[in-house]
């Protein structure tokens, strides 16, 4: 009566078998994926390692920077004793790091954030730059820090979550250690919604570990804060 | 001398400095990839307030509205685009045809069946608020999209290419996801009362309708009502093609949804009612004379430290009735009543677990469908009596889907999505019966006996898998390549339609071709291997230029097509234009390419901004078993649109060109159709919270036959002349929307 063949009534053994075979296939796939993941992840550290070297080359130890790579974003005018150089290096800085300090009163027009560019894209070229002869030390520190901030931001922004159709701004504060490890993540200001706060915290937590920061001076860690504007 | 000395002293540092400057310039040039970041950092100087919080990084903007589908070959039709188009059509599936690669075959006024890249509705995943809606009609008159109204839909995602397994199973084609507007909440401590009311009129067929959406919300609870009504008489074909009979319709949809924020989660409960008192089908022998459907959906979504959890439960009952509307003879003599009843219920659980820098998605879903389809006897009719015709007796289709998917993005701009999925499908149905066992009912009586004697229980274990890779070649170019193997089990009507009599088989089929269809218990699931790619280049930001090229190739094993069983004959025994066909497994392949592009023309405060958009689709579908063209394949088509915006005025002019359909499926007696061009214009004017729309579809009243429109059976019955279903003639449409 029931001669439905493979699709017939012999259900339990047949589909248990198929399910078994399928699960085996699934686990094989997963193993392959994990292997691929490991491989691809392997690529990324090698790139960031290069970046690290570029940083160490970047932060010129001799002569020690007159201004420590401070958190201040103002242009630190170099000491005026070398009058000629002062003029030119100020000019140079205007060309080079102009985007960084110039818009004095510019509102934080962060509603149009930069495209989440991958810092590693710029990585190799920076390695080349590192062989450039002694650039002005202080602006170097500045631009190194700015570029590091850019990397952090891009790493976090690349992992930004999908919106929940809720509005709020959650401010997350986090500390990065000498090796780029995430030392702490905390909520500096709540969005007023538990889900949004959690999304923001989670995003930063998942973006770590970061590339090692440039010379942090005496400090063991650098503290950053980043707002997430949900709407 | 002093001067010289001075000059020398000056020259050295200048030379050194200019070398420095050159170095800096070089670095700038090389660092060209990162200037935006630096610029953003510059825009966010350390403010004293944040100084104690550490170094302030720029804001990360998370805009829920701008979320695009996460694949390259997809498109999102936003609420505002839908509002633009609602004045012209009440048919959600027809609106989707503005997406490259999407076409649709004609049915009732709000029941067009979508086709994505040559694969039709039954082969697609169509979700409304995350829930699949089971078909409840032998002619598929009430497909999922017929329960949606463009007036109240929030947004629609269409994925034409390879899609991740987490987007749905038991389908081999693209994905259509219709979403209601997300719940709105008030600001903390506030209350919110907001809404929208709209109305429209269309001159062709005197179509009119209206909708009301209202939300009352606190900061934690939101209650929304959505209601809409629409109706139209028979429309006129373009030029001198005249009235298209059996094309009138009316329907109303209502839903009430309650949403609450609980901890870090959102709970939603939505219930609704749909009623369509009548919908004519110009290309079917029957019309829909009533369709009532009730549903209840529950949804819980929550954010955890480990990831997201999403749980859905759904229930829907549908009572569907068919008979003849006036154009097909009405029901004065009883007509031919056909009733379908469906109960469906299901759940879906999905966990997105953040793991190793990526996301692991685990999901499980179950869907139960129970279907009864019976045709009551017609008093005094020899053919349709003395008993009820039992077409499907308690047909059951249960599906348990499970998937595992992994997605990871690397910092180099590379994203990989890999997933595997299993769908267990169990089907069964009870014994059936013909109207009677008289001489004229012999074919059905014998078929019923054979069907009842056969084993009807079926079980399929379907494995699917997807591998999608996306790579950002540069900030202005991305490429996506995907491979998928997808499997779909036959639906209840494909497997369990059994009638062999001429009339019984003519009642089966959603193809609009006038042929009769007989199911097949031996059908195997369709298995499709698809390769798709999408290369996208763009520049100039959101309103900049873009170009997307998306080629694809699909090979389907066990493609469910049809073979001829017999000619239908007229009363004199001569063959007619229609045949009796049976569903069989064959092989098929489809390949093609979709193009889309946009370019800004000008933008100034005095002349406004203008933009040119274009799209084109070409495909080739072939049945590898009989080496003929596949049925319902759209010929080459292209569209050019000009959008202009100034102040509150938005103007759109769209020119659509469709090539001649000369590749037709001989098995289905598919008609050839000629090429045509349509011009649509629309003006939208917004002033405060009022939006006025005035437009014309098919402005020059071009006469044409829609390539996938099917045969005009309503006209055949009334005039005796057989022709394809004409396309709509000119319609002047007006609409108003007021938000409050």
Structural class per helix/strand content of chain B? mainly beta
User: Number of helical runs of chain A?
Assistant: 5
Fraction of residues in β-strands of chain B: over 45%
* Tally of DSSP helical segments of chain B: 9
Find the biggest chain interface: A-B, 117 and 91 residues
CATH fold call of the largest domain in chain B: Maltoporin, Chain A
The CATH class name of the largest domain in chain B reads Mainly Beta
**Cross-sheet strand order for the largest sheet of chain A:** 2-1-3
Describe what you observe in this structure:
- The complex is a heterodimer of chains A (231) and B (740).
- Chain A has 231 residues and is α+β, with helices and mostly antiparallel strands.
- Chain A has a domain of 161 residues: Fusion Protein Consisting Of Minor Coat Protein, Glycine Rich Linker, Tola, And A His Tag, Chain: A, Domain 2, CATH 3.30.1150.
- Helices cover 47% and strands 12% of the residues of chain A.
- Chain A contains five helices and three strands.
- Chain A has a three-stranded antiparallel beta sheet with strand order 2-1-3, covered by helices on one side.
- In chain A, β1 and β2 form a beta hairpin.
- In chain A, α4 crosses α5.
- Chain A is elongated, with a radius of gyration of 25 Å.
- The N terminus of chain A is likely disordered.
- In chain B, a hairpin with a 5-residue loop joins β25 and β26.
- Chain B is mainly β and 740 residues long.
- In chain B, the strands form three sheets. Chain B has a 22-stranded antiparallel beta barrel. In chain B, strands 3-9-10-7-8 form a five-stranded mixed beta sheet. A three-stranded antiparallel beta sheet of chain B has the order 4-5-6, with no helix packed on it.
- The longest helix of chain B has 29 residues.
- β3 of chain A pairs parallel with β1 of chain B.
């Amino acid at each position: 009566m029931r001669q439905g063949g493979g699709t017939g009534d012999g259900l339990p053994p047949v589909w248990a078998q198929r399910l078994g075979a399928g699960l085996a296939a699934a686990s094989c796939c997963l193993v392959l994926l994990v292997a691929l993941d490991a491989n691809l992840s392997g690529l990324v550290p090698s790139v960031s390692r290069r970046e690290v070297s570029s940083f160490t080359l970047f932060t010129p130890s001799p002569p020690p920077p007159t201004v420590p790579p401070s958190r201040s974003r103002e242009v630190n005018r170099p000491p005026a004793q070398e009058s000629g150089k002062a003029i030119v290096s100020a000019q140079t800085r205007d060309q080079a790091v102009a985007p960084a300090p110039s818009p004095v009163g510019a509102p934080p027009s962060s509603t149009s954030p930069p495209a989440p560019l991958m810092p590693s894209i710029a990585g190799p070229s920076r390695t080349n730059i590192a062989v450039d002869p002694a650039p002005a030390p202080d602006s170097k520190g500045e631009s190194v820090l700015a570029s590091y901030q850019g990397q952090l931001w891009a790493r976090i922004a690349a992992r930004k979550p999908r919106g929940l159709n809720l509005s709020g701004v959650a401010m997350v504060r986090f500390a990065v250690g000498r090796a780029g490890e995430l030392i702490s993540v905390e909520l500096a200001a709540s969005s007023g919604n538990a889900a949004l706060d959690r999304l923001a915290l989670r995003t930063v937590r998942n973006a770590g570990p970061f590339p090692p920061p440039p010379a942090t001076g005496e400090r063991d860690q650098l503290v950053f804060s980043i707002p997430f504007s949900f709407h | 001398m002093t001067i010289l000395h001075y000059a020398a002293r000056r020259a050295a540092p200048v030379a050194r400095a200019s070398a420095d400057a050159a170095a800096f310039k070089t670095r700038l040039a090389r660092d060209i990839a990162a200037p935006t970041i630096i610029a953003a950092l510059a825009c966010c100087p350390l403010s004293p307030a944040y100084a104690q919080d550490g170094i302030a990084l720029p804001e990360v903007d998370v805009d829920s509205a701008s979320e695009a589908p996460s694949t390259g070959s997809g498109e999102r039709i936003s609420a505002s685009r839908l509002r633009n188009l609602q004045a012209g059509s009440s048919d959600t599936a027809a609106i989707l045809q503005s997406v490259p690669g999407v076409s649709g075959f004609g049915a009732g006024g709000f029941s067009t069946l979508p086709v994505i890249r040559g694969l039709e509705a039954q082969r697609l995943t169509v979700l409304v608020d995350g829930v699949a809606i089971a078909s409840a009609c032998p002619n598929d008159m009430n497909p999922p999209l017929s329960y949606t109204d463009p007036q109240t839909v929030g947004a629609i995602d269409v994925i034409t290419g390879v899609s991740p397994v987490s987007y749905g199973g038991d389908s081999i084609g693209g994905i259509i996801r219709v979403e209601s507007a997300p719940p709105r909440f008030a600001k903390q401590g506030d209350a919110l009362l907001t809404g929208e009311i709209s109305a429209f009129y269309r001159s062709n067929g005197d179509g009119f309708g209206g909708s009301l959406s209202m939300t009352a919300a606190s900061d934690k609870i939101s209650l929304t009502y959505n209601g809409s009504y629409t109706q139209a008489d028979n429309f006129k074909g373009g030029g001198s093609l005249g009235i298209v009979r059996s094309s009138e319709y009316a329907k109303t949809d209502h839903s009430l949804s309650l949403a609450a924020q609980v901890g870090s989660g959102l709970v939603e409960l939505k219930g609704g009612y749909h009623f369509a008192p009548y919908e004519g089908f110009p290309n079917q022998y029957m019309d829909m004379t009533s369709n009532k459907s009730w549903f209840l959906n529950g949804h819980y979504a929550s954010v955890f430290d480990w990831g997201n959890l999403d749980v859905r439960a759904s229930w829907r009952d549908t009572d569907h009735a068919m008979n003849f509307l006036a154009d097909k003879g009405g029901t004065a003599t009883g007509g031919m009543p056909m009733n379908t009843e469906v109960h469906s219920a299901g759940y879906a659980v999905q966990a997105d677990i953040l793991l190793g820098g990526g996301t692991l998605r685990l999901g499980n879903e179950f869907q139960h469908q129970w279907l009864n389809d019976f045709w009551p006897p017609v008093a005094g009719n020899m053919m349709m009596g003395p008993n009820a015709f039992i077409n499907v007796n308690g047909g059951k289709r249960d599906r348990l889907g499970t998937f595992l998917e992994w997605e990871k993005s690397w910092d180099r701009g590379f994203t990989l999505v890999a997933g595997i999925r299993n769908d267990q499908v169990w089907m069964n149905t009870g014994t059936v019966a013909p109207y009677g066992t008289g001489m004229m009912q012999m074919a059905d009586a014998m078929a019923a006996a054979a069907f009842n004697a056969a084993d009807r229980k079926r079980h399929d274990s379907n494995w699917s898998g997807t591998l999608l890779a996306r790579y950002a070649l540069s900030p202005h170019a991305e490429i996506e390549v995907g491979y998928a193997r997808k499997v779909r089990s036959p639906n209840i009507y494909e497997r369990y339609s059994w009638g062999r009599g001429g009339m019984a088989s003519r009642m089966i089929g959603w193809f609009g071709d006038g042929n009769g269809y007989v199911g097949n218990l031996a059908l195997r699931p369709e298995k499709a291997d698809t390769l798709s790619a999408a290369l996208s280049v763009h520049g100039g930001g959101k309103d900049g230029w873009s170009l997307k090229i998306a080629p694809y190739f699909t090979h389907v094993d066990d493609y469910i097509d049809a073979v001829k069983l017999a000619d239908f004959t007229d009363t004199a025994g001569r063959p007619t234009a229609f045949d009796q066909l049976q569903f069989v497994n064959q092989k098929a392949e489809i390949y093609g390419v979709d193009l889309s592009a946009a370019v800004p023309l000008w933008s100034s405060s005095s002349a406004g901004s203008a933009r040119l958009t274009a799209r084109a689709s070409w495909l080739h579908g072939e049945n590898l078993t009989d080496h003929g063209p596949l049925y319902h394949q759209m010929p080459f088509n292209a569209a050019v649109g000009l959008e202009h915006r100034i102040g509150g005025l938005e103007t759109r002019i769209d020119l659509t060109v469709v090539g001649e359909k000369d590749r037709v499926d001989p098995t289905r007696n598919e008609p050839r159709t000629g090429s045509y061009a349509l011009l649509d214009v629309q003006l939208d004017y917004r002033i405060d919270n009022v939006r006025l729309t005035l437009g014309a579809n098919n402005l020059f009243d071009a006469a044409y036959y829609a390539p996938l429109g099917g045969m005009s059976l309503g006209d055949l019955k009334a005039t005796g002349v057989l022709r394809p279903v004409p396309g709509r003639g000119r319609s002047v449409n007006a609409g108003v929307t007021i938000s409050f």
